[in-house]
Design a protein that fits this description.
This protein has 152 residues and is an alpha+beta fold. The protein has a single domain, classed as Alpha-Beta Complex (Peptide Deformylase). It contains 2 helices and 6 strands, in the order H-E-E-E-E-E-H-E.
Length: 152
């Protein structure tokens, strides 16, 4: 698999609302593989297809508990707000304090087209919301209360 180019802020694909995946085929599974490889190579915890220039509703996440692949993810429940620090592979060296839900439930399809339900708290909840925002053309800096450069 190849490492894909991560698009940076200013690239118009990052501002578009992504299209739903209508057919999960070999090409989509190859994209999932390449996205995961790219995320790990960049030392990220999540990556959305628009970040690699593909305007489809696909996300990969690994907060340390194993790879999660989501196709057409939708947040179906959320609870309790909290503020935390976020960064983004599309905005290297930029961090911000963002208010997000502390608990979320997400429904999506897996690489085999089966419906899955993910319940996330803490970092996973934050990553799910951050990556789904990418699918809607929203960067974390648009939600940040404060923004700073450098280390978390």
């Amino acid at each position: 698999m190849a490492i894909l180019e991560i698009r940076k802020a200013g690239d118009e694909v990052l501002k578009k609302i992504s299209e739903p995946v209508v057919k999960i085929d070999r090409k989509i599974r190859q994209l999932l593989n390449a996205m995961a490889e790219t995320m790990y190579a960049a030392d990220g915890v999540g990556l959305a297809a628009p970040q690699v220039g593909i305007s489809l509703r696909i996300v990969v996440i690994d907060t340390g508990e194993g790879l999660i692949e989501l196709i057409n993810p939708v947040i179906t429940a959320q609870d309790k707000l909290e503020t935390g620090t976020e960064g983004c592979l599309s905005l290297p060296g930029v961090f911000g304090e963002v208010e997000r839900f502390a608990e979320v439930t997400v429904e999506a399809l897996n690489r085999n087209g089966k419906k899955i339900v993910i319940q996330g708290t803490g970092l996973l909840a934050r990553a799910l919301q951050h990556e789904i925002d990418h699918l809607d053309g929203v960067l974390f800096i648009e939600r940040a209360k404060t923004i700073h450069k450098g280390q978390k």
